[in-house]
Amino acid sequence: MSPHRTLAAASLVMMPIFAGCLGSDDAAAPETTATHEADISFATYYVARRDLRRCASPQCGGFFISAVNQEKTVCVDGTTAEECYVADIQFSSILQLAGVEGTIREAIGVQRESTRAILFGDLFSGQSGLGSLSLRFAWVALEPAELRGEFHRVMHNGVVCVAAPCPSFNQEHLNTGATRTIHELDLKEVPGNGRDDFDSGPALFSTLGMILNGQDVRIENYGPAGDAIVLQATQGFLPIIRPTLRRSGAPADDGPVIGRRLAGGGGSGGGGEGGSGGIRNTNTQ
Fold this sequence. Notes:
This protein is mainly β. It has helices at about 95-100, 100-110, 200-205; strands spanning about 15, 45-50, 65, 75, 80, 85, 90, 115-125, 130-140, 150-155, 170-175, 180, 185, 210-225, 225-240, 240-245, 280. The strands form three sheets. Strands 2, 3, 6, 7, 8, 9, 10, 11, 12, 13, 14, 15 and 17 form a 13-stranded mixed beta sheet that branches. The chain has a two-stranded antiparallel sheet with strand order 1-16. A two-stranded antiparallel sheet has the order 4-5. A hairpin with a 2-residue loop joins strand 14 (about 210-225) and strand 15 (about 225-240). The longest helix is centred in the middle third of the chain and has 8 residues, at about 100-110. It is elongated and about 65 Å long. The relative contact order is 0.17.
């Protein structure tokens, strides 16, 4: 069985990350806090695809879900399979308040290999007995891409250094419990990273983090401090709802990490220039 992961339940004011999700301006966005949610300590990260089979609901028309970073997924009846069928998805109250159900459903798509959604939740039998996913939270990519590599949740840990490379990011390998500290993120292959709404800053500097699909690469002699571990991402998922408050020690402004220098005066470019750690090779001018 996939180990259950914990998503930090910090008391953060939340707002939709995708413009237009509520059909109104940001000032009208509902304010809520993670403390209003039920305990979300026992849940799994999934990718999913819509069921397009033609038969009577609820036997058809639901979703097939797969635990990320796992060869097998534990289904609601206790069996294991490459993917499990669930008749429906039940959205948490925080997602209902934000009005983002439609955005998440659209992001799931019909192929799990190119889904734009990472789902965090747990399974229960549901009214039909065929299974239901109790969705606690979700991360959504702006544009589709073929998923390659492992899935990680990454956040900036506030560490800055005099010389590069700097261990500035905490990385969680989803559904396994493995954690490590890495030096930089390479997002040049992530589709949509040049868009104005690729707002990775609030995600990386929050307890929600950003989910990245890709692989860690060691670059020797990256800078004066030695070798660097860089996460080379091919897809990036932003939290569907983001905190408007920053992690302790993060910059005071709300601007994106992309295209600017991080706190501490270090550069975000590659090749070991600067010492703060950060985003590199991002296709920005």
